[in-house]
């Protein structure tokens, strides 16, 4: 659909293939990037982000209608620069071959693992945090010594054009390049025979990308979405939980992959939680319509989907509580919304919401809350609010999600030392930091035979010595 967006130049298929071939050829023809070159590429990427923060923030804000500069700074520029710093600081350690154990029968040989660049890594990124979700995997792939081809989302055309221009100014196209366009370009991109393809986006498109990659046996990392729960336990102060949940949910108007999608609350506390959430919203965003701190929704199509989902919930008898509604809608936004009793079949209860609408679900016991989470696809993130070690352990031990923040929201993504990725329907594989470096490397096992090769000395022809050795080894189990 957005291939036709006049603000976005569409890279034609032949041009995309030319750049891919150039990178592919270079990755086979020349020795892999050494430590110095990787550092230089990382520094150039960091310098590009640092020097153009304002331009990026303006472009992203224009793509969203409104997005606060400070949100772009804190959620995109700061983590991207942090990832560059972390990679540069640890790269020498990550690149070091790892010595491995050699069994007695293979002595005096040696064994080690080399972390080799894969070659050319493709990255398809979404619109919600367009800079961070394009550059964060690119940083890991560059640290691992790869060449990178990037395709940003067509829904952030101003950002995508700027990214293409700035990357071309700082990098040779054989090192890092950007192609632009919509679904058609995305389809052609995912059919290229990359050495690894990382896709961040919806589960539905993730399936298509996985299929296209399988045709070429291209290994994938799929960073998808899903319904991430926040479980508030009985012992935890409600206003404190509400503060964290409102923060994580209404930032970027709910268009955050790891935003809490719904809240599970002990049954007697639903009303109090709704009131506490609205109080937090009013505190954080006193007005909505003209408030530059409260983001717009990325497109009219996405906004209508959200407004309709709220209407459907209202029609089937859910309680809908909003702040600043009429004016916000007139101003092209979706107001912060809390919904009670959304039935299972409604969009709000069954699909990832990806907007500023927060259903509250009542539970009778923690077992019931855990069963509710486990009755759905594995979520990308899970939040649990409790001060009680036993409850914390029960939730951690009996659920599974991509990542977890305890007594807060979103913050696990900001820890450079933690892997980030989904599980089951929320994704395949993780990146960030050392896990990212490994994700885009091939762990190549090397065995070097020692001064003599005991194995070959045994035969053939197989004689008594070989039989005795086999017997002794079998006995060891
Ligand atoms: P999307 O799946 O619609 O699009 C993502 C990218 O895929 C875009 O660049 C798009 O052009 C491209 N694309 C579309 N159709 C394609 C096709 N058939 N083949 C190949 N590429 C194609 O996702 P979106 O709307 O941009 O992002 C929202 C979704 O992304 C949400 O579900 C959210 O949870 C998820 N998300 C996940 C993470 C994460 O880290 N796990 C981060 C951000 C967003």
Q: What do you see in this structure?
A:
This protein has 477 residues and is of the alpha/beta class. The protein has two domains: 13-224 and 428-441, Aldehyde Dehydrogenase, Chain A, domain 1 (3-Layer(aba) Sandwich); 229-421, Aldehyde Dehydrogenase, Chain A, domain 2 (3-Layer(aba) Sandwich). The protein has helices at 13-29, 35-51, 53-64, 69-95, 130-143, 157-170, 183-190, 203-215, 238-250, 270-284, 300-315, 325-330, 347-350, 366-374, 389-398, 433-439, 454-457, 464-476, and strands spanning 98-100, 110-117, 120-124, 147-151, 176-178, 196-200, 220-223, 229-232, 262-266, 319-322, 337-340, 357-363, 381-385, 403-406, 420-421, 427-428, 430-431, 441-448. A seven-stranded mixed beta sheet has the order 10-11-12-9-8-13-14, with helices on both faces. It has a six-stranded mixed beta sheet with strand order 5-4-3-6-7-16, with helices on both faces. It starts with 12 loop residues before the first helix and ends with a helix. The model has no long low-confidence stretch (mean pLDDT 96).
Q: What is the CATH top level name of the largest domain?
A: Alpha Beta
Which shape, going by the Cα principal axes? globular
Q: Work out the helicity level.
A: 40-55%
Q: What is the annotated CATH architecture of the largest domain?
A: 3-Layer(aba) Sandwich
Q: Report the uncertain regions.
A: none
Average pLDDT works out at 96
By DSSP (H or I, 4+ residues per run), the number of helices equals 18
What is the straight-line distance between the termini? Answer: 62 Å
Q: What class do helices, strands and sheet pairing give?
A: alpha/beta
Task: Give a short account of the largest sheet.
Answer: 7 strands, mixed
- What is the domain total for the residues? 2
């Amino acid at each position: 659909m957005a291939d036709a967006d006049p603000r976005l130049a569409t890279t034609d298929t032949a041009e995309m293939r030319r750049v891919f071939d150039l990178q592919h050829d270079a990755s086979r023809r020349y020795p892999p990037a050494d430590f110095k070159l990787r550092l230089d590429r990382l520094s150039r990427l960091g310098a590009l982000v640092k020097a153009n923060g304002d331009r990026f923030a303006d472009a992203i804000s224009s793509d969203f209608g409104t997005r606060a500069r400070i949100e772009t700074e804190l959620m995109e520029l700061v983590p991207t620069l942090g990832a560059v710093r972390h990679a540069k600081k640890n790269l020498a350690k990550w690149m070091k071959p790892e010595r491995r154990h050699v069994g007695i029968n293979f002595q005096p040989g040696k064994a080690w693992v080399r972390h080799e660049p894969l070659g050319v890594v493709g990255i398809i990124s979404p619109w919600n945090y367009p800079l961070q979700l394009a550059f964060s995997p690119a940083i890991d792939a560059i640290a691992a010594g790869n060449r990178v081809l990037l395709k940003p989302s067509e829904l952030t055309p101003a950002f995508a054009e700027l990214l293409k221009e700035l990357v071309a100014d700082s990098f040779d196209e054989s090192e890092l390049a950007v192609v632009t366009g919509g679904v058609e370009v995305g389809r052609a991109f995912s059919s290229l025979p990359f050495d690894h393809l990382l896709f961040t986006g919806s589960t539905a498109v993730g399936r298509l990308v996985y299929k296209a990659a399988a045709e070429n046996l291209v290994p994938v990392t799929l960073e998808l979405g899903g319904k991430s729960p926040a479980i508030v336990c009985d012992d935890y102060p409600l206003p404190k939980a509400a503060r964290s949940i409102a923060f994580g949910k209404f930032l970027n108007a709910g268009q955050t992959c790891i935003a809490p999608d719904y809240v599970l609350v002990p049954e007697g506390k639903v009303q109090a939680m709704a009131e506490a959430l609205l109080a937090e919203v009013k505190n954080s965003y006193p007005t909505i319509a003209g408030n530059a701190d409260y983001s717009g929704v990325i497109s009219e199509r996405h906004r209508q989907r959200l407004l309709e989902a709220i209407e459907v919930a209202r029609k089937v008898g859910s309680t809908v509580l909003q702040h600043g509604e009429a004016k916000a809608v007139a101003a092209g936004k979706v107001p912060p919304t809390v919904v009670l009793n959304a039935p299972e079949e409604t969009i709000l209860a069954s699909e990832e919401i990806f907007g500023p609408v927060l259903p509250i679900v009542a539970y009778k016991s923690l077992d019931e809350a855990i069963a509710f989470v486990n009755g759905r696809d594995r979520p990308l993130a899970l939040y649990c609010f409790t001060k009680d070690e036993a409850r914390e352990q029960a939730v951690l031990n009996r659920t599974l999600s991509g990542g977890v923040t305890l007594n807060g929201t979103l913050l696990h993504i900001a820890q450079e030392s933690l892997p980030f990725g989904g599980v089951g329907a929320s994704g395949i594989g993780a990146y960030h930091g050392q896990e990212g470096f490994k994700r885009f490397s091939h762990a190549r096992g090397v065995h070097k035979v020692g001064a003599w090769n005991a194995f070959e000395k045994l035969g053939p022809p197989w004689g008594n010595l070989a039989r005795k050795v086999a017997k002794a080894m079998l006995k060891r189990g």
